[in-house]
From TrEMBL:
Function: Plays an essential role in the initiation and regulation of chromosomal replication. ATP-DnaA binds to the origin of replication (oriC) to initiate formation of the DNA replication initiation complex once per cell cycle. Binds the DnaA box (a 9 base pair repeat at the origin) and separates the double-stranded (ds)DNA. Forms a right-handed helical filament on oriC DNA; dsDNA binds to the exterior of the filament while single-stranded (ss)DNA is stabiized in the filament's interior.
Recorded GO CC terms: cytoplasm; plasma membrane
Subunit (UniProt): Oligomerizes as a right-handed, spiral filament on DNA at oriC.
Protein name: Chromosomal replication initiator protein DnaA
Record key words, sorted: ATP-binding, Cytoplasm, DNA replication, DNA-binding, Lipid-binding, Nucleotide-binding
Species for this entry: Roseivivax marinus
Amino acid sequence: QWGALRKTLCETIGENNYKAWIEPLRYDGLENGVATFGAPTNFVGTYVSQNFGDVMLSQMNALSGDSVRRLHFRVVQGANETSEPTRSAAAVAPATPAAPTSPAVAPAQASSDLLPGAPLDQRFKFDSFVVGKPNELAHAAARRVAEGGRVTFNPLFLHGGVGLGKTHLMHAIAWELRERNPELNVLYLSAEQFMYRFVQALRDRRMMDFKSIFRSVDVLMVDDVQFISGKDSTQEEFFHTFNALVDQNKQVVISADRAPDEIKDLENRIRSRLQSGLVVDLHPTDYELRLGILQTKVEQQMAYNPGVTLQDGVLEFLAHRISTNVRVLEGALTRLFAFASLIGKPVDLGMTQECLTDVLRANERKVSIEEIQRRVAEHYNIRLSDMIGPRRTRAFARPRQVAMYLSKKMTAKSLPEIGRRFGKRDHTTVLHGVNRIEALAKSDAQIAEDLEILRRALEA
Ligand code: ADP
Ligand code: MG
């Protein structure tokens, strides 16, 4: 029942709270009326119990027929390891883009009466979307579509990994279009909702209504279209709807978590139609973009938690240590601010580490020595065999030392182990290489830059 409980909880306490507090929990079962949960830190357990305990208890009882008397939280290592946070958020989020009780969200905006669209999230507008290198193309394309006017590319196909801003951009397009022209029939929904409505229409024998509704919109936006892979009749209907709109020169915007040619079990004619407009991807966020996003979100958090202050270096630390998914980044910030406002101290690095141990641990990228060797060889344009081979000319020795250095810094491997992996070299050779590069990084700008590039590529 944990799945069901999570879903209803997300709806009642809002997506932000859900992400920050419920997602990290693990449900360990019910015994003698006591429901036990594993929490990643003591703080999370206490916070959840104080703030959401009552709601959880009553919802659990509603779901289980009053069998729960008490909730118990205990600290466990890696509480949420079984369900990767980004994935489980994604599973819930698309169905409820605007959690009704979340403070920043206005009530669902009813478009026109009949249209079965999904509500738009107030927070997802262009002015809150931070633009950086990884998303600038997607952003520019979305802007262009949002201007309305002549349809230049159809469809616009946005793709990218979880939490990189696809849904945000789609909502932003819809908001902007509606603002510019309230008459316009803009329909946004997820592919899952499209399927659901289609099935419902079939069941109720209302296919004519279904077709006429979907074919009379001015702009159709379908989110997470990978969902219809393998669902033949839904694909068929989607294809017809799509064609009818494109033929009338109506704008269609599609998103997916991967490129059209990577979506499995999709009819070829659909795939090629999806590719026939403009396909742009949102790349994984880089450090600068993450920092920019954090700075923007901190301002919002400050508004909710007046009095909380942030010490220098905290945002940089988070931008550095938390991987690409912006949703995870937001969840971390929300929790951090709640923590700080509760204990009434400024946020510093120590507090950040304590409060976010689980998130930070989950984001530790495990880099292997092989990966380092491969990347470094590529970077210096030498063969992998020369990287680990016996030759000691400078053209090979320097890259080798760089790779040894990175292996020492980025993996937990010991010097002897690293030595073995570099063609059975002695640990003193490794130590010498590490020291050499460490010294050079301070005096040689080129080496410093190489290290920076390689580090980033390996961390990405
Ligand atoms: P996706 O649909 O690609 O999985 P979302 O659009 O739902 O991702 O984004 C996840 C969260 O991250 C949302 O809260 C969104 O507002 C935020 N987000 C993503 N990219 C940006 C960005 N560039 N600027 C500001 N917020 C962003
Ligand atoms: Mg999405």
